[in-house]
Amino acid sequence: MKKNRTTRGNGMVTLPWDLLPDILAWLPVKSIARFRCVNKAWCKLLRNTEFLKRQYKHAVEMKRFSIMFHNQNDIYTFSYDPLLSTCEGSGHVEYPVKSVKMGIEFFGCCNGLVFLRHVNKFNSAVLILWNPSSNECKKLPDPPTKLKEHRGGFVEYGFGYDCQIEDFKVVRIAQGFKKGWCEVQVFSLRSNSWRRLEDIQVDKLSYDFNRPDMCRLPVNGALHWKALVGGDLGTDNILRFDFEKEEFDQISIPDEVNDDHERHLCVLGGSLWLLVNEYGCSLEFWELKDSEGKRSWNRCFSIDIDKFDSDKDLIPLQLLENGKILFGVHSGSDLQFVLYDQKRETTRTLKVHEGLVTSSFPTSVYVESLISLETGTYLGKVQWGKVEEDVSEEKEGEEEEDKVEVEDEEDDGGTGAGVAGTSDDNDEEESK
Asked: Where is this region: Disordered (predicted)?
Protein backbone atom coordinates (compact mmCIF):
# COMPACT_ATOMS: atom_id res chain seq x y z
CA MET A 1 0.00 0.00 0.00
CA LYS A 2 1.41 3.36 -1.04
CA LYS A 3 2.03 5.74 1.82
CA ASN A 4 0.46 9.16 1.45
CA ARG A 5 3.66 11.05 2.19
CA THR A 6 7.02 12.04 0.77
CA THR A 7 10.32 11.05 2.34
CA ARG A 8 13.94 12.01 2.06
CA GLY A 9 16.82 9.59 1.67
CA ASN A 10 17.22 9.34 5.44
CA GLY A 11 13.63 8.19 5.79
CA MET A 12 12.41 11.37 7.51
CA VAL A 13 8.84 12.29 6.63
CA THR A 14 8.70 15.76 5.08
CA LEU A 15 5.28 16.59 3.64
CA PRO A 16 2.02 14.76 3.01
CA TRP A 17 1.67 13.94 -0.67
CA ASP A 18 -1.70 15.69 -0.90
CA LEU A 19 -0.07 19.02 0.03
CA LEU A 20 2.55 18.91 -2.70
CA PRO A 21 0.32 20.24 -5.55
CA ASP A 22 -0.76 23.22 -3.42
CA ILE A 23 2.87 24.09 -2.65
CA LEU A 24 4.49 23.38 -6.00
CA ALA A 25 1.86 25.32 -7.95
CA TRP A 26 3.29 28.56 -6.54
CA LEU A 27 6.75 27.90 -7.99
CA PRO A 28 8.10 29.41 -11.23
CA VAL A 29 7.67 27.38 -14.39
CA LYS A 30 11.34 26.47 -14.76
CA SER A 31 11.49 25.08 -11.23
CA ILE A 32 8.43 22.93 -11.88
CA ALA A 33 9.98 21.63 -15.10
CA ARG A 34 13.11 20.59 -13.21
CA PHE A 35 11.12 18.86 -10.47
CA ARG A 36 9.52 16.62 -13.08
CA CYS A 37 12.85 14.83 -13.18
CA VAL A 38 12.69 13.81 -9.48
CA ASN A 39 10.83 10.55 -10.16
CA LYS A 40 7.88 9.15 -12.09
CA ALA A 41 5.35 10.11 -9.41
CA TRP A 42 6.48 13.74 -9.42
CA CYS A 43 6.53 13.79 -13.22
CA LYS A 44 2.94 12.50 -13.39
CA LEU A 45 1.80 14.99 -10.75
CA LEU A 46 3.44 17.98 -12.44
CA ARG A 47 1.97 17.07 -15.83
CA ASN A 48 -1.57 16.81 -14.52
CA THR A 49 -3.95 19.15 -16.33
CA GLU A 50 -5.60 20.42 -13.16
CA PHE A 51 -2.20 21.15 -11.62
CA LEU A 52 -1.13 23.13 -14.71
CA LYS A 53 -4.33 25.19 -14.52
CA ARG A 54 -3.67 25.90 -10.85
CA GLN A 55 -0.08 26.90 -11.57
CA TYR A 56 -1.17 29.36 -14.27
CA LYS A 57 -3.87 30.83 -12.02
CA HIS A 58 -1.35 31.39 -9.22
CA ALA A 59 1.11 33.01 -11.64
CA VAL A 60 -1.58 35.49 -12.69
CA GLU A 61 -2.51 36.17 -9.05
CA MET A 62 1.14 36.81 -8.18
CA LYS A 63 1.36 39.21 -11.16
CA ARG A 64 4.19 37.26 -12.74
CA PHE A 65 4.74 37.99 -16.40
CA SER A 66 7.36 37.83 -19.10
CA ILE A 67 7.96 40.06 -22.11
CA MET A 68 8.40 39.02 -25.72
CA PHE A 69 9.92 41.00 -28.57
CA HIS A 70 10.36 39.85 -32.16
CA ASN A 71 11.81 41.15 -35.38
CA GLN A 72 11.70 39.47 -38.78
CA ASN A 73 13.76 36.44 -37.84
CA ASP A 74 14.34 36.41 -34.07
CA ILE A 75 12.26 36.18 -30.91
CA TYR A 76 13.60 37.46 -27.58
CA THR A 77 12.04 36.88 -24.18
CA PHE A 78 12.64 38.85 -20.98
CA SER A 79 11.77 38.08 -17.38
CA TYR A 80 10.25 40.79 -15.19
CA ASP A 81 10.75 40.59 -11.43
CA PRO A 82 7.85 42.41 -9.68
CA LEU A 83 9.69 42.50 -6.34
CA LEU A 84 12.89 44.08 -7.63
CA SER A 85 11.32 45.92 -10.61
CA THR A 86 14.00 44.53 -12.91
CA CYS A 87 13.80 43.22 -16.45
CA GLU A 88 16.47 40.81 -17.70
CA GLY A 89 16.89 38.86 -20.91
CA SER A 90 16.03 35.17 -20.58
CA GLY A 91 15.85 33.59 -24.01
CA HIS A 92 16.46 33.91 -27.74
CA VAL A 93 14.93 31.86 -30.54
CA GLU A 94 16.38 32.29 -34.01
CA TYR A 95 14.16 31.21 -36.87
CA PRO A 96 16.15 28.73 -39.01
CA VAL A 97 15.26 30.24 -42.41
CA LYS A 98 15.82 33.98 -42.79
CA SER A 99 13.17 36.16 -44.38
CA VAL A 100 13.67 39.50 -46.10
CA LYS A 101 9.95 40.28 -46.23
CA MET A 102 7.37 39.73 -43.52
CA GLY A 103 9.25 37.20 -41.42
CA ILE A 104 7.80 36.44 -37.96
CA GLU A 105 4.41 37.89 -37.07
CA PHE A 106 2.77 37.74 -33.66
CA PHE A 107 -0.98 37.08 -33.60
CA GLY A 108 -1.61 36.82 -29.89
CA CYS A 109 -1.02 34.74 -26.78
CA CYS A 110 -3.35 33.03 -24.34
CA ASN A 111 -2.75 30.88 -21.22
CA GLY A 112 0.98 30.72 -21.92
CA LEU A 113 0.69 29.73 -25.60
CA VAL A 114 1.68 32.05 -28.46
CA PHE A 115 0.32 32.10 -32.01
CA LEU A 116 2.87 32.99 -34.72
CA ARG A 117 2.98 33.20 -38.49
CA HIS A 118 6.16 33.11 -40.55
CA VAL A 119 6.13 34.30 -44.15
CA ASN A 120 9.16 33.49 -46.31
CA LYS A 121 10.51 35.22 -49.40
CA PHE A 122 8.19 33.17 -51.61
CA ASN A 123 5.15 34.46 -49.65
CA SER A 124 4.56 30.97 -48.27
CA ALA A 125 3.25 31.04 -44.72
CA VAL A 126 3.41 28.64 -41.80
CA LEU A 127 1.11 28.96 -38.77
CA ILE A 128 2.58 27.91 -35.43
CA LEU A 129 1.38 27.53 -31.86
CA TRP A 130 4.33 27.85 -29.48
CA ASN A 131 4.95 27.59 -25.76
CA PRO A 132 7.91 29.93 -25.07
CA SER A 133 8.45 28.36 -21.63
CA SER A 134 9.11 24.85 -22.96
CA ASN A 135 9.85 25.84 -26.59
CA GLU A 136 7.38 23.17 -27.74
CA CYS A 137 5.51 24.07 -30.91
CA LYS A 138 2.82 22.78 -33.26
CA LYS A 139 2.39 23.56 -36.94
CA LEU A 140 -1.23 24.17 -37.81
CA PRO A 141 -2.73 22.68 -40.97
CA ASP A 142 -3.26 25.14 -43.79
CA PRO A 143 -6.76 26.67 -43.92
CA PRO A 144 -8.86 25.14 -46.72
CA THR A 145 -9.45 28.31 -48.72
CA LYS A 146 -8.79 29.90 -52.07
CA LEU A 147 -7.94 33.18 -50.34
CA LYS A 148 -4.19 32.79 -49.86
CA GLU A 149 -1.88 34.79 -47.63
CA HIS A 150 -0.55 38.09 -49.02
CA ARG A 151 -2.31 37.81 -52.34
CA GLY A 152 -3.20 41.51 -52.23
CA GLY A 153 -6.05 41.57 -49.73
CA PHE A 154 -5.69 41.58 -45.96
CA VAL A 155 -5.64 38.43 -43.83
CA GLU A 156 -6.01 38.72 -40.05
CA TYR A 157 -5.78 36.13 -37.28
CA GLY A 158 -6.78 35.96 -33.65
CA PHE A 159 -5.99 33.47 -30.89
CA GLY A 160 -8.04 32.73 -27.79
CA TYR A 161 -9.58 30.16 -25.47
CA ASP A 162 -13.10 28.79 -25.28
CA CYS A 163 -13.64 28.25 -21.55
CA GLN A 164 -16.95 26.49 -22.07
CA ILE A 165 -15.45 23.53 -23.94
CA GLU A 166 -11.84 24.09 -22.78
CA ASP A 167 -10.39 24.44 -26.27
CA PHE A 168 -7.89 26.82 -27.87
CA LYS A 169 -9.14 28.42 -31.07
CA VAL A 170 -7.73 30.48 -33.95
CA VAL A 171 -9.97 32.73 -36.02
CA ARG A 172 -8.95 33.71 -39.57
CA ILE A 173 -10.50 36.70 -41.34
CA ALA A 174 -9.61 37.15 -45.02
CA GLN A 175 -10.79 39.76 -47.49
CA GLY A 176 -13.13 37.98 -49.89
CA PHE A 177 -13.53 38.22 -53.64
CA LYS A 178 -16.62 40.37 -53.11
CA LYS A 179 -15.71 43.87 -51.99
CA GLY A 180 -16.68 44.66 -48.42
CA TRP A 181 -17.05 41.00 -47.40
CA CYS A 182 -14.65 38.78 -45.48
CA GLU A 183 -14.29 35.02 -45.30
CA VAL A 184 -14.14 33.65 -41.73
CA GLN A 185 -12.69 30.34 -40.53
CA VAL A 186 -12.07 28.93 -37.05
CA PHE A 187 -9.42 26.39 -36.09
CA SER A 188 -9.93 24.11 -33.09
CA LEU A 189 -6.85 22.72 -31.37
CA ARG A 190 -8.86 19.83 -29.94
CA SER A 191 -10.07 18.64 -33.36
CA ASN A 192 -6.97 19.93 -35.21
CA SER A 193 -9.20 21.19 -38.03
CA TRP A 194 -10.66 24.33 -39.58
CA ARG A 195 -14.35 25.18 -39.94
CA ARG A 196 -16.00 27.81 -42.12
CA LEU A 197 -18.27 30.39 -40.50
CA GLU A 198 -20.60 32.86 -42.15
CA ASP A 199 -18.93 35.69 -44.05
CA ILE A 200 -18.95 39.12 -42.40
CA GLN A 201 -19.30 42.59 -43.91
CA VAL A 202 -16.13 44.58 -43.16
CA ASP A 203 -14.13 46.81 -45.49
CA LYS A 204 -10.77 46.72 -43.71
CA LEU A 205 -9.32 45.39 -40.46
CA SER A 206 -6.47 47.12 -38.62
CA TYR A 207 -6.15 49.17 -41.76
CA ASP A 208 -3.24 51.30 -40.50
CA PHE A 209 -0.89 48.24 -40.68
CA ASN A 210 1.07 49.79 -37.83
CA ARG A 211 -0.43 48.27 -34.72
CA PRO A 212 1.11 47.11 -31.45
CA ASP A 213 1.19 43.44 -30.52
CA MET A 214 -0.47 44.40 -27.23
CA CYS A 215 -3.75 44.85 -29.13
CA ARG A 216 -3.80 41.16 -30.08
CA LEU A 217 -4.55 39.74 -26.64
CA PRO A 218 -8.00 38.36 -25.72
CA VAL A 219 -10.20 40.15 -23.20
CA ASN A 220 -12.96 38.20 -21.43
CA GLY A 221 -12.93 35.51 -24.12
CA ALA A 222 -13.03 37.93 -27.05
CA LEU A 223 -10.65 39.60 -29.51
CA HIS A 224 -10.86 43.12 -30.90
CA TRP A 225 -9.68 44.82 -34.10
CA LYS A 226 -9.91 48.34 -35.42
CA ALA A 227 -12.21 48.15 -38.43
CA LEU A 228 -13.40 50.36 -41.25
CA VAL A 229 -17.08 49.91 -42.05
CA GLY A 230 -18.97 51.58 -44.88
CA GLY A 231 -16.33 51.92 -47.59
CA ASP A 232 -13.25 54.14 -47.79
CA LEU A 233 -15.22 57.06 -46.36
CA GLY A 234 -16.85 54.90 -43.70
CA THR A 235 -16.59 55.12 -39.94
CA ASP A 236 -14.07 53.71 -37.49
CA ASN A 237 -15.38 50.90 -35.36
CA ILE A 238 -14.03 48.06 -33.26
CA LEU A 239 -14.83 44.55 -34.45
CA ARG A 240 -15.23 42.01 -31.64
CA PHE A 241 -15.14 38.20 -31.92
CA ASP A 242 -16.45 35.98 -29.10
CA PHE A 243 -14.61 32.63 -29.00
CA GLU A 244 -17.39 30.77 -27.16
CA LYS A 245 -20.30 31.98 -29.28
CA GLU A 246 -18.16 32.28 -32.44
CA GLU A 247 -20.02 35.50 -33.23
CA PHE A 248 -19.01 39.04 -34.21
CA ASP A 249 -20.32 42.36 -33.00
CA GLN A 250 -19.13 45.97 -33.15
CA ILE A 251 -18.14 48.62 -30.61
CA SER A 252 -18.10 52.33 -31.38
CA ILE A 253 -15.10 54.59 -30.88
CA PRO A 254 -15.74 57.33 -28.24
CA ASP A 255 -17.34 60.39 -29.84
CA GLU A 256 -14.97 62.65 -27.89
CA VAL A 257 -11.89 61.26 -29.66
CA ASN A 258 -10.64 63.41 -32.53
CA ASP A 259 -10.42 61.57 -35.86
CA ASP A 260 -7.11 63.30 -36.59
CA HIS A 261 -5.37 61.76 -33.57
CA GLU A 262 -3.37 58.54 -33.82
CA ARG A 263 -5.28 55.71 -32.10
CA HIS A 264 -4.35 52.18 -31.07
CA LEU A 265 -6.03 49.41 -29.16
CA CYS A 266 -4.18 47.87 -26.22
CA VAL A 267 -4.94 45.22 -23.59
CA LEU A 268 -3.89 46.08 -20.03
CA GLY A 269 -4.96 44.57 -16.72
CA GLY A 270 -7.57 42.38 -18.37
CA SER A 271 -9.34 45.34 -20.01
CA LEU A 272 -9.45 46.79 -23.51
CA TRP A 273 -7.97 50.28 -23.78
CA LEU A 274 -7.93 52.86 -26.55
CA LEU A 275 -4.70 54.87 -26.68
CA VAL A 276 -5.02 58.30 -28.23
CA ASN A 277 -1.82 60.12 -29.20
CA GLU A 278 -2.54 63.84 -29.36
CA TYR A 279 -0.01 65.13 -31.89
CA GLY A 280 2.94 63.64 -29.99
CA CYS A 281 2.24 65.75 -26.90
CA SER A 282 0.17 63.49 -24.70
CA LEU A 283 -1.14 59.93 -24.59
CA GLU A 284 -4.74 59.48 -23.45
CA PHE A 285 -5.95 56.21 -21.92
CA TRP A 286 -9.60 55.23 -22.50
CA GLU A 287 -10.85 52.04 -20.82
CA LEU A 288 -13.81 50.04 -22.12
CA LYS A 289 -16.20 49.13 -19.32
CA ASP A 290 -18.42 46.11 -20.00
CA SER A 291 -21.02 45.44 -17.33
CA GLU A 292 -23.84 42.98 -18.06
CA GLY A 293 -23.64 43.70 -21.77
CA LYS A 294 -23.64 47.48 -21.34
CA ARG A 295 -20.46 48.99 -22.76
CA SER A 296 -19.07 52.45 -22.13
CA TRP A 297 -15.76 54.25 -22.55
CA ASN A 298 -14.10 55.94 -19.60
CA ARG A 299 -11.25 58.40 -20.02
CA CYS A 300 -9.00 57.41 -17.11
CA PHE A 301 -5.82 59.47 -17.39
CA SER A 302 -3.34 61.14 -19.71
CA ILE A 303 0.46 61.00 -19.83
CA ASP A 304 2.82 63.77 -20.93
CA ILE A 305 4.98 62.19 -23.64
CA ASP A 306 7.77 64.70 -22.93
CA LYS A 307 8.47 62.72 -19.74
CA PHE A 308 10.08 60.05 -21.95
CA ASP A 309 13.36 60.34 -23.82
CA SER A 310 11.69 59.21 -27.03
CA ASP A 311 8.27 59.94 -28.51
CA LYS A 312 8.46 57.02 -30.94
CA ASP A 313 6.27 53.94 -30.43
CA LEU A 314 5.48 54.45 -26.77
CA ILE A 315 3.68 51.20 -25.87
CA PRO A 316 2.29 50.37 -22.40
CA LEU A 317 2.97 46.74 -21.48
CA GLN A 318 1.64 46.28 -17.95
CA LEU A 319 -0.28 48.14 -15.26
CA LEU A 320 1.63 47.65 -12.01
CA GLU A 321 0.83 48.37 -8.39
CA ASN A 322 0.91 51.88 -6.91
CA GLY A 323 -0.12 53.47 -10.19
CA LYS A 324 3.03 52.51 -12.10
CA ILE A 325 3.06 51.49 -15.77
CA LEU A 326 5.71 49.50 -17.60
CA PHE A 327 6.37 50.82 -21.12
CA GLY A 328 8.26 49.54 -24.12
CA VAL A 329 10.02 52.48 -25.75
CA HIS A 330 11.77 52.75 -29.11
CA SER A 331 14.85 54.94 -28.83
CA GLY A 332 17.14 54.98 -31.85
CA SER A 333 18.02 51.34 -32.50
CA ASP A 334 17.44 50.33 -28.89
CA LEU A 335 14.54 48.75 -27.05
CA GLN A 336 14.02 50.27 -23.61
CA PHE A 337 11.82 49.11 -20.75
CA VAL A 338 10.73 52.18 -18.81
CA LEU A 339 8.78 52.37 -15.55
CA TYR A 340 6.44 55.36 -15.34
CA ASP A 341 5.12 56.57 -11.97
CA GLN A 342 1.75 58.31 -12.43
CA LYS A 343 1.75 59.90 -8.96
CA ARG A 344 5.20 61.48 -9.26
CA GLU A 345 5.07 61.79 -13.06
CA THR A 346 8.59 60.38 -13.29
CA THR A 347 10.25 57.72 -15.42
CA ARG A 348 12.96 55.18 -14.66
CA THR A 349 14.68 53.10 -17.33
CA LEU A 350 14.93 49.49 -16.20
CA LYS A 351 16.82 48.02 -19.11
CA VAL A 352 18.24 49.03 -22.48
CA HIS A 353 18.69 46.36 -25.13
CA GLU A 354 20.90 47.78 -27.84
CA GLY A 355 20.48 47.09 -31.52
CA LEU A 356 17.37 44.94 -31.17
CA VAL A 357 14.65 47.15 -32.48
CA THR A 358 13.36 49.56 -35.07
CA SER A 359 10.02 49.77 -33.26
CA SER A 360 8.60 48.78 -29.89
CA PHE A 361 5.27 47.77 -31.46
CA PRO A 362 6.25 44.06 -31.75
CA THR A 363 6.54 43.82 -27.94
CA SER A 364 4.00 42.04 -25.75
CA VAL A 365 3.59 40.36 -22.36
CA TYR A 366 2.60 36.81 -21.49
CA VAL A 367 2.33 34.60 -18.42
CA GLU A 368 4.45 31.46 -18.42
CA SER A 369 2.79 28.05 -18.28
CA LEU A 370 3.71 24.42 -18.94
CA ILE A 371 0.65 23.58 -21.03
CA SER A 372 1.78 20.95 -23.52
CA LEU A 373 0.91 20.83 -27.20
CA GLU A 374 1.63 17.08 -27.12
CA THR A 375 3.93 17.21 -30.15
CA GLY A 376 7.46 16.78 -28.80
CA THR A 377 8.47 19.28 -31.51
CA TYR A 378 10.53 22.36 -30.69
CA LEU A 379 10.98 25.71 -32.40
CA GLY A 380 14.30 26.76 -33.87
CA LYS A 381 17.59 26.93 -32.04
CA VAL A 382 16.92 28.16 -28.54
CA GLN A 383 19.56 29.69 -26.28
CA TRP A 384 18.63 30.00 -22.60
CA GLY A 385 20.43 32.52 -20.42
CA LYS A 386 21.33 36.15 -20.91
CA VAL A 387 20.40 37.56 -24.30
CA GLU A 388 23.72 39.39 -24.50
CA GLU A 389 25.83 36.30 -23.74
CA ASP A 390 27.00 33.79 -26.32
CA VAL A 391 26.28 30.13 -25.73
CA SER A 392 29.30 27.86 -25.99
CA GLU A 393 29.60 25.52 -28.97
CA GLU A 394 29.67 22.59 -26.58
CA LYS A 395 26.27 23.47 -25.11
CA GLU A 396 24.81 24.05 -28.56
CA GLY A 397 26.07 20.64 -29.62
CA GLU A 398 24.43 18.98 -26.63
CA GLU A 399 21.13 20.72 -27.24
CA GLU A 400 21.07 20.12 -30.98
CA GLU A 401 19.85 16.56 -30.54
CA ASP A 402 16.84 17.70 -28.49
CA LYS A 403 15.91 20.75 -30.56
CA VAL A 404 14.25 20.63 -33.93
CA GLU A 405 13.84 23.38 -36.44
CA VAL A 406 10.81 24.75 -38.20
CA GLU A 407 11.90 24.92 -41.82
CA ASP A 408 10.38 26.79 -44.73
CA GLU A 409 10.26 24.98 -48.04
CA GLU A 410 10.65 26.66 -51.39
CA ASP A 411 7.48 27.49 -53.24
CA ASP A 412 7.29 24.32 -55.30
CA GLY A 413 3.55 23.83 -55.11
CA GLY A 414 3.67 22.34 -51.62
CA THR A 415 2.50 23.83 -48.38
CA GLY A 416 5.49 26.16 -48.23
CA ALA A 417 6.61 25.38 -44.70
CA GLY A 418 6.74 22.65 -42.14
CA VAL A 419 7.84 21.50 -38.71
CA ALA A 420 10.13 18.53 -38.62
CA GLY A 421 11.55 16.30 -35.91
CA THR A 422 10.61 15.17 -32.43
CA SER A 423 12.21 14.78 -29.04
CA ASP A 424 12.04 11.64 -26.91
CA ASP A 425 12.96 13.45 -23.73
CA ASN A 426 10.53 16.27 -23.04
CA ASP A 427 11.47 16.59 -19.38
CA GLU A 428 15.10 17.27 -20.20
CA GLU A 429 14.06 19.84 -22.81
CA GLU A 430 11.73 21.69 -20.48
CA SER A 431 14.22 21.85 -17.64
CA LYS A 432 16.89 23.62 -19.69
From this structure: 387-432
